């Protein structure tokens, strides 16, 4: 067979051309894929990445932190937070805690780029299969994604959220180190019991700091981020143990612990402490005033600024003195209870249903029981001579009929007989462990204690208990001060030519009002008149007629001007205001009395000394005085620098001291003698407004001034027997006996120019020579006079000798000065 000729290819090199064509097509399709991927990425970025924070914003992120409040001595006393959180650095978290959270939440955390591809794919598949079923798919989020979700993206349930979360996770990984990411996570996450962050949760569940946690305790905290309510010891203890032991198993598999450590930890109980919410915050009314002022200055939340009260992490130093505050609270509460003790039991506070949730219903009433051994309770049942009662924490007790024998106010009969199931009452824990029925008084009041030299408020009590009533009667209640206003009338008189020895008639005094109203006649509280008396005597005995006569003589315009510059109020120039008819607050009038003790220089009442931001930078200070050289790098040996005194002189210093000296007489011989035995120089003034609807006392020592009032919130008569000297002054005495117990005994210091002269307290005449001991004449005292106002009327030595009893021995000047009170 003939051999065929070889095939001739008409297209030489075609194989190479096909190979090139295939290569071209491959590159072209690769380009299509790349361009499509880029377009898809840009589309996703445009749709989902807009509005996400930049790397710089992530680096500057700071978690919301509570505001921490400290007392005058730097001790922490309170915090203001909606999220309980304590921020720690990564290095402060123990390795066992980090290992536990890594094992529970994200075992590849230190190696993945922000997302776990396998976990994310599983989460997407789970979401797809459950779409429309109403069931929630598993998360599949890494710790980085949880940081993104918690900080920025939110928690809406959607594919778009997961995409934004993934984009932000990549961005976070590029901006922060793994340690920084884990630090944010451990400080940010919510773990139940209102605890945000692991340190706060450690305190809430175990009463420990993170450095003190054991292995099983750290493993328990690591199970909480997903759903804290699923692992509560109260309802799901078995589930919590199972999940905790799973985390321990994961820690072993990851090489963090040994098998022996896991077995020992798995055998340990959960060890969670009972959830405890304190019944009342420390210094309730004081702290509420601090919170209110901070909110006015910085706002409440992050939207109001970086230094907001509930997220800014402020450090606040206050003037709060725990000892003084406790003394004020106890004294005022005791006085309120004592005033209404004879009235009997005032009845139930409220009613609730007795069901499975009665404890929560009782707690939600927010009953303020005041004393630490008083508690709100609900009557669960009553049989025979006993009533079963329940408390806010779910515990129960027994109230015997012998513990509720007081009569019911306005009705009579034993209080026990009126108790019914569902009644909310207040009971007191007795020393023998039993309970007795008590009443929260319906009368209320307010009290403020202040440093007269700086204006710092040391204590503030605005009622019986801030939990029961947030209305602060120390700062918000406008009440008539009654006779506590009189010192300002006489201060104006001293500034206008009168002296403590000036003679004022204590007799009938009427003023013409109008043709329709006719005359208005004033009268003393006792209804009697005493004739000619000195100004001092009139203040000591709180004589109304002498006060209005003085105000009329000098002019009410001068009186109201004095009241205004001393910060009490801005009143019209009517004579009734000389007797305290104008309204003011406890804080205002205590501050005005502090001006007397501060030699007439203005002071501003403050509860906050200074504020620092979360980094310690000073952002506000109450004392704005400059102190040149106070921050010198090296002491130069010269006198220590002091801030300059820049307080305004609102009244004459000698006038202030004269009034202070006169009000010492109120304590020694007048309406506040209940304070006389405190063993230190004291001044003050009692007050009783018309009705009487309010009773007052304001005064104190050289270094502590306070004041209080008692009265019903809806003003009504307290009873004709109610007086400031018999009700308010004893309350202040009880306070001062505790608060001033360890204070130095400091005399009131007279300013330059004051001269001390012996005068007859009732006649105002200057006494020369000795005064006969045991005579029937009025006592002699040392009185304070300005240089230009010495008394001209005198009682001379020869007149004394002529009028004295023959057997009376003359007391020498030196003996007089050595006498205890300066009076005989």
Automatic annotation (TrEMBL):
GO terms for cellular component: outer membrane-bounded periplasmic space; plasma membrane. This is Penicillin-binding protein 1A. In the N-terminal section; belongs to the glycosyltransferase 51 family. In the C-terminal section; belongs to the transpeptidase family. Residues 74-252 form the Glycosyl transferase family domain. InterPro entries: Beta-lactam/transpept-like, Glyco_trans_51, Glycosyltr_51/Transpeptidase, Lysozyme-like_dom_sf, PBP_transglycosylase, PCB_OB, PCN-bd_Tpept. Pathway: Glycan biosynthesis; Cell wall biogenesis; peptidoglycan biosynthesis. PANTHER family: BINDING PROTEIN TRANSPEPTIDASE, PUTATIVE-RELATED, PENICILLIN-BINDING PROTEIN 1A.
